[in-house]
């Protein structure tokens, strides 16, 4: 799918398998989310614009590089919080702004309850962080908010996506690239007794598994 960057890195595939396992406890789950995000950060920022930076080394002078644009991280509460620290380790100058969106379990539509964005955009690149791109409702709502805020370049970074969520986000915002470790098979519809709106094979509820509330 155009605009979808699905990683095939061996370390990502290995760690994602550990993340999916039902037996993986919360502490290990959080560690794996951080490690996977750390690896995905390199892919999501591979084309980060650079500018020349003259420096002096112990052996002389040279012209190096530094990031030419400011990057903002926008974790969708609460599951997206587990992805922030890894990005800050890769690029400590990132700004972090929070959006609170939860999915209504009856309608499967997003409900906004928290917005910590300043009055005007302060970065050139926004990365929306959410481990799961399921129905796509929260991702679309987050992009809507960021575009109204003035963000010009937006990307979604997650761990697992459903085809339905990918299509919904691409139809609403075809300019937003998607970076994930895997695109899974489908979303549950509730017809077989399982809760509706969950990714299969997926990993369950990423927020509950991170914070031990499932």
Q: In summary, what is this structure?
A:
By secondary structure, the chain is α/β, with parallel strands linked by helices.
Characterization of the model:
With 214 residues, this protein is α/β, with parallel strands linked by helices. α1 packs antiparallel against α2 (26-44). It is globular and about 70 Å long. Strands 1, 4, 5, 6, 7, 8, 10 and 12 form an 8-stranded mixed beta sheet that branches. It starts with a strand and ends with a helix. The chain has a single domain (4-47, 66-209), classed as 3-Layer(aba) Sandwich (Rossmann fold), CATH 3.40.50. It has 6 helices and 15 strands.
CATH first level: which class?
Alpha Beta
Radius of gyration: 18 Å
Q: Largest sheet, if any?
A: 8 strands, mixed
Structural class of the helices, strands and pairings?
alpha/beta
């Amino acid at each position: 799918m155009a605009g979808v960057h699905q990683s095939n890195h061996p370390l990502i595939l290995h760690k994602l398998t550990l993340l999916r396992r039902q037996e993986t406890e919360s502490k290990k789950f959080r560690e794996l989310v951080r490690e996977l995000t750390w690896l995905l950060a390199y892919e999501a920022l591979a084309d980060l614009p650079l500018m020349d930076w003259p420096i002096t080394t112990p052996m002389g002078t040279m012209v190096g590089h530094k990031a030419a644009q400011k990057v903002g991280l926008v974790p969708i509460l609460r599951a997206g919080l587990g992805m922030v620290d890894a990005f800050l380790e890769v690029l400590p100058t990132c700004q972090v702004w929070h959006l609170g969106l939860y999915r209504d379990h009856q309608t499967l539509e997003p409900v906004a309850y928290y917005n910590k964005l300043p009055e005007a955009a302060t970065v050139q690149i926004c990365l929306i962080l959410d481990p799961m791109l399921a129905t796509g409702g929260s991702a679309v709502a987050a992009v809507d908010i960021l575009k109204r805020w003035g963000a010009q370049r937006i990307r979604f970074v997650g761990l697992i996506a459903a085809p339905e969520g990918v299509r919904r986000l691409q139809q609403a915002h075809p300019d937003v690239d998607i970076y994930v470790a895997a695109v899974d098979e489908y979303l549950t519809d509730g017809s077989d007794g399982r809760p509706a709106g969950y990714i299969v094979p997926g990993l369950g509820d990423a927020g509950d598994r991170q914070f031990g509330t499932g």
